[in-house]
Amino acid sequence: MTHPLIVLVEDEEHLAQGLLFNLEAESYRTRHFADGAEALAYLLDTPDDIGAILLDVMLPGKDGFEIVRTLREHQLYFPVLMLTARSHPQDVLEGLNAGADDYLPKPFDLEILLVRLKSMLRRASWQRPLSAEPAPQKPSSDLYSFNQREIHFDTLELIAPNRTTHLTLMEADLLRYFADHESQIVPRKDILEQVWRVHEDTDTRAIDNFIVRLRRYIEDDPSEPRHLLTVRGIGYRFIANP
């Protein structure tokens, strides 16, 4: 069995060497870049089957935000775990807006990183079932339907008439949270703390751009939303059947 290839993009040499050692001890194959521009060039053109990317935010050449944004623009959906500075929760929101699947603040516990990585790889494997094997039955909790749309939380897909949208892990988590709280007002603070695990003081208005993207996925007319409504001064409310 071929072990997943993990691409590490990290310019702190001491941290990078420690991560590479531990990843290889877990039997992962690794590829390391210290320069953002070099990493992006490789990711855009590589024939390698990449399992996941561990991506630092602050990099020479191109920063992590630009890298993940460019990958998504090219419809490359490698799972991306961004490594962010603990003192900058705004980095978390910008990374999510760019299309990252998950984040981890520095300094981080190695075991937590490995658990997050395994979770991303497991989700990615669900999207690539072996053709010789029958597709497993999906638990009902992995499928949410509304207004001729289906959210497949296991494969991170939103299927609408004439369109299938690939979701990031954080987009799927937020849509699940809205579905679980259907018709209820969800404060911006709850999105930060309950969905994205950001507990520091943060300008919660930064979420608004993220909501704009979700509306493009689920609304017939994003400029006149009927499903994902703004509750002025508080947050949002999801209505499955207006």
Explain this structure to me?
- With 242 residues, the chain is of the alpha/beta class.
- It folds into two domains: 5-126, Rossmann fold (3-Layer(aba) Sandwich); 140-238, Winged helix-like DNA-binding domain superfamily/Winged helix DNA-binding domain (Arc Repressor Mutant, subunit A, Orthogonal Bundle), CATH 1.10.10.10.
- It has helices at residues 13-25, 36-45, 64-73, 89-98, 110-126, 169-180, 188-195, 207-218; strands at 5-9, 29-33, 50-56, 80-85, 102-106, 143-146, 149-152, 157-160, 163-166, 185-187, 228-231, 235-238.
- The strands form three sheets. A five-stranded parallel sheet has the order 2-1-3-4-5, with helices on both faces. A four-stranded antiparallel sheet has the order 6-7-8-9, with helices on one face. Strands 10-12-11 form a three-stranded antiparallel sheet.
- Strand 1, helix 1 and strand 2 (29-33) form a beta-alpha-beta unit.
- The radius of gyration is 18 Å and the shape is globular.
> What would you say the CATH architecture of the largest domain is?
3-Layer(aba) Sandwich
Strand order within the widest beta sheet: 2-1-3-4-5
Order of helices and strands: EHEHEHEHEHEEEEHEHHEE
What is the helical fraction, as a range of percent? 25-40%
Structural class: alpha/beta
Indicate the radius of gyration in whole angstroms: 18 Å
> Judging from the principal axes of the Cα atoms, what is the shape?
globular
Residue runs with pLDDT of under 50 for 5 or more positions: 129-140
Text of the CATH class of the largest domain:
Alpha Beta
Mean of the pLDDT scores? 85
Distance between the termini: 49 Å
The main sheet comes to: 5 strands, parallel
Task: Could you tell me the CATH topology label of the largest domain.
Answer: Rossmann fold
**Full CATH superfamily name of the largest domain:** Response regulator
Number of individual domains: 2
User: Count of DSSP helices?
Assistant: 8
Query: β content, as a range?
Result: 15-25%
Number of strands: 12
